[in-house]
Structure formats: structure tokens, C-alpha cells
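Cross-posting from the modeling subforum.

Setting up a comparison between two proteins and wanted a second pair of eyes on the formatting. Protein 1 (sequence, then C-alpha cells):
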Amino acid sequence: MKHIAILVPYDAVPAAIVDPRYMFTAVNQFLAQAGKEPAFEVQLVGLTRQVPLNDGTFSVNTDRLCSEIKKTDLVVIPAVSGDLKAALERNKELIPWMIDQYHNGAEMVSLCVGAFLLAKTGLLNGKECSTHWLSANEFREMFPEVTLTDGTIITEADGLYSSGGASSYWNVLLHLIEKYSGREMAIRASKYFAIEIDRKSQSPFIMFNGQKKHEDEPIKKAQEFIEDNLAEKISIEELASRFAIGRRHFIRRFKKATNNTPAEYIQRVKIEAAKKHLENSRKNINEVMYDVGYSDVKTFRTVFKKITGLSPIDYKHRYNRDGVR
């Protein structure tokens, strides 16, 4: 039987505690119905017997204190809310315990922005990780030694797992159910909880806002120029010349400031604008394509799918209530 320790950190998102507990205990129920032994012992673990959440709106009674858990098989690290730097400071006493458990053989899984807590241990340094797309820039700033994968639902490296944003943590939980108790139980759980099994990407949900939390003013102006001239075909040479920076130096500065090359940034800004047109207007695919500066249908579709994970027509089917023309 696997021991599952679900952490209850200060500032935790209540659902990210309740949902994994529900899923692992539900699988035990499925096994019992099949006349089999339970697969999991699930316990809520924290620094105190009772942990207030949401400014005291909720309180969680833990089953065990961290100091009482000498060995576990899986540590579940839920998402935390509010100011992430403040949340890490409030939960700093959890970090040594997490490190000890990992070195004692435990696997670890972070849910959504629980990745910040996992990254704080240093165990992810040099490895890939996923988190909520909205927190990606902040994560990169705080943990440059970790490779954050844009749009990924699940990452796995050396017994360290992470999930994408919000409800996508159900998919990493299904992944672990399959690993620990087999494909049949994972499929049963996916049907019971109405979760699409084997979903790999959160790309359709990402809203690209650019990265302007930097101090390189010429690069900010270049970003603004790109965003103000969506319908134009902007070259790297034109941008570099406009802001009186050598081409190679411009590319390096742009990448350092935004985590995107100029070409990637141009693509993402154009595709974000295209997404909004597809969501909210009655324009057809070709009209949207021209509005954001593409003239070749194949190129537009290829770039759109690369960034969103969906074709333009599939994206419109999903998000525009007036349907597709």
C-alpha cells in the first residue's frame, strides 16, 4: 500500500487539498468494489494540527504533523494563493522536511503553483517543471535554474512531477493513479471524475500578455511597436534599426528581457490577437489571418496550432458561441 502525504501549507488553495484526497480514496473504493485491497493510505500533513486557509474562512485539520511522518511514498504539494513570495516565506519550515522525504525515497508532485514550493527545495534545479501559465514569468524570475515548460500539463523527472494550471492537476493525479494502480483504475477514475485522460497541453488556455517586467526601455518600446502594428510584416532588421541597436545584440537583449526571441514574440502577439478575433467576432478564418498580418493560410494554421494546440477552426468551434463560418 502506498502512503500518500498531502501537504497542507499555509495559504493553500482548499480544492487542491480536497481533490487529490478525494481521487486517491475513490480509487480505494473502486478497488474494494472489485474485491481488492486498497492501494493508498491517504493522510493530510502539516506543520500544525489545524491550518487556517483563505484568511480563516476555512480550516483544515491535519491527520499527522510533518514531524510524525518519517517515511512516505508520495508528497502532494497543493497550490497556494495570494502573494507567492510571501507564501513561500510562511511555509519555509516545510522545505527541509520535503527535501528529507525525497532523499528518503518519496516521490513528489506539485499541483499548479505548488510548483513554487517544490522549486524552493532546489530539487528541480536542472530539471523541467510546469505550473500555471499565468505565473510562468514570475516562476522564471524566481527560479532561473529550473526549466519551465510552456503549456505542458505534466512533467516528470527523477520522481518529481508537476502539473499545469488550475484544474489540469487532475491529469497529473490520473497519471499517478495509472502508475501506482494500473491503467484500468486510471480509466475508471477519469470516467468517474469526468476528466479527459491523457490530456497533454494547457496551450489552448494560455493568454499571452507579454513580459514587460524588465528595465530595458528600448526593448519595451520594441514590444509596444510590435503590439501596435499587428497587421504589418515586421522584420528583425527593421526593429533593430528603429531602436538603433545592432541586430545580434538586439536579439540577445530581447530574449533576455522577454524570454522570447523577437520572432517568437511577434508570432505570439499576432496569434493572441487572432484568438480574440476568433472568440468574439463573426469574421472567418481568412479575415482573421489578414487582420493579424498573415497572408499564407498554411503558415497561419501551422503557427496557430503550434502555439495553441488547436487549429484556428477548432479553436473557434470551442470558444465562439456563434460557431464557425
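Protein 2 (same layout):
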Amino acid sequence: MKKAFLWCTLLLWAQVCQSTTPYVQAGKLPTAELTTQLAQVEKKLQAEGFTVVGRHMPKGLPTHASLVVTDPAMLEAIRSIGGPSIIAAGIRVGVQSDGTVSYMNPNYWFRAYLRGSFKAGEIPAKSVQARLARTLGEGAGFGGDVAEADLANYRYMFGMERFDSPNSELSSHASFEEALKTVQDNLTNGVGNTSRVYEVVMADRKLAVFGVAMNDPGDGESAWMNKIGANHIAGMPYEIFIVGNKIFALYARYRIALAWPALGMGQFMGIINTPDAIRNTLSKVAGGVPPG
């Protein structure tokens, strides 16, 4: 009886402590121009039923890019869940000019972004994972290990932000329509030296998400990614999202840590000014007043 109890305890402990990684290594492409490689990967993803909604070629990172696709079943799950789950709409695949391909691990990112509603999106998440593996190949996971059970309430360390931290809110507008137009217009006009990578709008649910390229050579994404590891390109672009009449962007002490969970404290201190720089930039896109 004691042995049976022990085995049950160990099994439950193993399930609780099961970990996952943010990225999966895919099969390698022949070396070619980056645009050629992106076109090859796009074609594969489209053949598998994904819809390509954006290409991201960060300024200052000429050998790295990402593709963003959507999946119909996952979009329906997000529509049903509502709220900030809209941030999970973009499925990202990283491509490098040396032929390296990687993709976001749906089991990791959807647990973090859907949080307590992950069960409602688990079936399409597993489908996305299987189809990415079938289309692009499935190698080793990389980027750091995080316990699955921790992702719904993830933070890098004590005292740092979580998904729902108050400082993720950037601005508030009179209506969803006004908030949407503000972001669309500001990205079209390049406010804050930004540009639009993709957008997914569910107007009937008053939800929208945009991928934002931050192009400033001094504090844009390439400036800090070069310091902490551009091989995590499948973690980009950064998102700005709308729920109702409010505009949000996950604060970078959460969002960067989620995408680089194995980041050492020394590396994090090396980009200590980045979280506020990102918030300042995206506050301009949101039509808010950047904090002083």
C-alpha cells in the first residue's frame, strides 16, 4: 500500500513538474537569400492550411526574419475565449539566412497567453503543434525550460511583472473603433519609428492584435536582441493588442523574459532600459502619453 501511494505521489509530481521550452528547432533549409527562404517556408505553411499574415525582417538583423501565420481553429478558440487571449492569434516561425528554421512551441506560448483558458484552446493548440512538426520538422526544443504549470502565471523572478500587470495598459479610448483606428493610423504613419508586421481584428468581439516592428537603431528590437540572442527570432515581433476600448502591450520584463526564459541576470541587466523604451514606443502607437 505504501509503495502504491509512493508511485502515485511520484507520478503526480512528475506531471506537475513537466517542463516545456519556448521554441522548437525545425529542419534546415539550404543556404540562400533570406527572402527566398521565407518564400519556401511560406509555401509549406500555406499548403498545411495556415494563413500567412505577416513577414518580419527586423532592421539591424539582416540575417534573421520571422513569418506570422494564423490557424482557423485557433482563431475560433480565441474568439470564444475573448479578452486578452487575442494576443495568441499570431503563430510565429523564425528563419535565418544560414538555413536555420525554428518555430514557437504552441504548448509553451498558448499556455502563457491563454492562461486559465488554455483547456478551451488545447485541442487546436495540439493540432497546430502537430502540423508545424509535420510541415517544418521537429527537432530539439530550446530557449530554456519552464514548468507547464507555471506558464499561466509566469514571471521571471519575484517582484517582476506577470501577464496581467497593470503597467501593460497603454491607453484608453472612447470606443473600440477609436482605439483600432488609432493603432492602425499610427503604424501606417510610422509613429515612434515603428511599422506594422501583421494585424488580426475581431471587430464583433471588440478585439485586435498587431505585430509591431520597432525600428529605431538606438533602442529598437535589434539593439537589444543582439545583446541577448537573436536565435530566438520566433519570439518576435512584439504585440500590441486591443480589448474593448483599451490598448495593451505586455510589459517587457514579462514579455522578453517569456521569450528568453533562460536569460541570465547579467544579460537582463545589460538591457535594463529596454522595458521602458519599449513601453514609451508602444505608448505613442497607442495614442497615449509615454510615462515620464
